[in-house]
Amino acid sequence: MTRQHHGDIARFDEWSATYDRGPGKYFFARIHRPVVEAVCSGRVPPRRIVDLGCGTGRLLEGLLSRLTEAELTGVDPAEGMIAVARTRFAGEPRVRLEVATADHLPLADASVDVVTTTMSFHHWDHQDAALREVVRVLAPGGRLLLADVLGIGFFGRLLRSTGRGHGSGYRNAPEMTALLRDAGFSAWRRRRLSWPGIPIYLVEARRSTSP
Ligand SMILES: C[S@@+](CC[C@H](N)C(=O)[O-])C[C@H]1O[C@@H](n2cnc3c(N)ncnc32)[C@H](O)[C@@H]1O
Known about the structure:
The chain has helices at residues 3-15, 24-39, 58-66, 79-88, 127-137, 153-162, 173-183; strands at residues 48-52, 71-76, 95-99, 112-118, 138-149, 185-192, 200-207.
């Protein structure tokens, strides 16, 4: 692990106590809504969902109320974030929470229908290894739904060039294609979420149906 990685996680640990109180929750809610819709959009509702970099569990909360049969797992390396999520879901048997990074998932092979992640991917130091982990844990035909800032368009290029110092940073389209292809996804598509100026995208990739 790099120093940067430790710095990022320590920062989120510190932030966890106040994370749900700041105005940022409105910002994140606008990103969570289309992700919840995308998870629920298939013909058959998914039963096993994992949220990577789940923070305090707000996306999981939205999924829990929509998918009444589903089992949800939240994964985050910041113990403070997971502690807040444990309080949020106390006594809820359908939610499991794990302290871990996305590149070392404490999950069995082919055990998940949908992997989500919101505003977390650019913080990951080992995006390549993490995406391989996502492919490993997804069942054949399973989906990845990744919402994050991408380094696309004028503002995206600006963000990349200022090199905001955390994780691997904001990926552009060719980099996303290479990362997803090398991890084992056969195709991906993206759509821009409605944030004026800020290049936030929802990326959807599917694991091939052959095991
Ligand atoms: C901006 S917060 C977003 C939290 C949540 N997904 C949301 O939408 O509110 C980013 C989260 O990513 C987590 N994170 C950082 N590095 C990570 C990694 N390598 N693997 C998984 N999560 C990571 C942080 O601890 C933090 O909780």
